[in-house]
Design goal:
CATH class of chain A: Mainly Alpha
Number of domains of chain B: 1
Order of helices and strands of chain A: HHEHHEEH
Number of helices of chain A: 5
Oligomer: heterodimer
Helix content of chain A: 40-55%
Strand content of chain A: 15-25%
Strand content of chain B: under 5%
Structural class of chain A: alpha+beta
Number of strands of chain A: 3
Shape of chain A: elongated
Radius of gyration of chain A: 15 Å
Strand order of the largest sheet of chain A: 1-3-2
Shape of chain B: elongated
CATH topology of chain A: Arc Repressor Mutant, subunit A
């Protein structure tokens, strides 16, 4: 594990699975995201998204909230601090792999 | 690269081809762009605010009671409907850290510039005796909203997408 300045680099198998990578990437850019937004963005069924959310919730990476907008119930999800830390560590680990291979790191990413 | 990783930690990282890592990072960036694009104020918002503001000020300045009444009611209903539409449309809230100080400064600068132009021009026109000074002063403000609003959104979008994927927390 190396400290990249964005937190320790730590490859996270749970996050790296394709659907969860997309899901956590969406959540990492948000304070919270609506269930329907996540479902539509990822092209998943309600049950498939629920399953992925539960997996991440069980790992302590996200929190699911239920609220009301007017009379309509709204389910939303947000990353916990542990989830944000895991995401940052995973980003750093991927950047290390890319940098080691001499590939270009995405614009805005610190070069190492 | 910089420093070497301890052997046991290198071992704990599964073998991921660099191209897969690159693709995963690109996916993260694309998902951020998706969130940012969803969260920006819709394009119709700016002309709607500019138009309603102009009509409201003109109605009040007309000093005709029934015009003032209708203009005020239409403005209140219009603004409320817009807020409801934007709130209902919002299904995600972009992380505040992505906007950052520079984004907040851009928003503040845009707002202050329009307020100063509107008030300054209004008083100046009134001082030289031009009729309907407030309405005339509102014209450049409305144009500023229509032209500057989408530009402000584009600037904020660039700022948010340029931030590192992790590390701004």
């Amino acid at each position: 594990m190396t400290d990249t300045g964005t937190g320790p680099a730590r490859f996270d198998e749970l996050i790296h699975a394709p659907t969860r990578l997309s899901l956590v990437s969406l959540l990492a850019a948000t304070e919270w995201a609506d269930f329907k937004f996540l479902r539509d963005s990822l092209g998943l069924s309600d049950s498939a998204l629920s399953k992925q959310l539960t997996t991440l919730e069980d790992a302590g990476y996200l929190e699911i909230r239920k609220s009301f907008v007017g009379k309509r119930p709204r389910t939303s999800a947000q990353l916990t601090p542990a989830g944000q830390q895991a995401f940052a560590g995973h980003v750093a680990a991927l950047q290390e792999i890319v940098a080691r291979a001499g590939l270009a790191v995405l614009p805005g990413e610190p070069a190492r | 690269m910089g420093k070497l990783m301890p052997e046991e930690e290198v071992m704990s990282t599964p073998h991921v081809p660099p191209i897969d890592a690159e693709l995963a990072l690109a996916e993260m960036q694309a998902r951020r762009a998706q969130v940012v694009d969803t969260n920006l104020v819709p394009r119709w918002f700016w002309p709607a605010v500019g138009g309603m503001m102009l009509l409201f000020v003109a109605a009040v300045e007309s000093a005709v009671p029934w015009v003032v009444a209708i203009g005020s009611i239409a403005y209140a209903l219009g603004i409320s409907a817009m807020i409801v539409a934007v709130v209902r449309h919002s299904r995600v809230q972009v992380r505040t850290a992505l906007i950052g100080r520079s984004g907040a400064a851009a928003i503040a600068l845009f707002t202050i510039a329009l307020v100063v132009i509107g008030i300054g021009l209004g008083f100046a026109l009134e001082a030289v005796g031009v009729p309907m000074p407030a309405t005339l002063a509102c014209l450049p403000v409305a144009v500023g909203l229509v032209v500057g609003g989408p530009r402000l959104m584009a600037h904020l979008r660039r700022l948010m997408l340029a931030r590192p994927l992790a590390g701004s927390r």
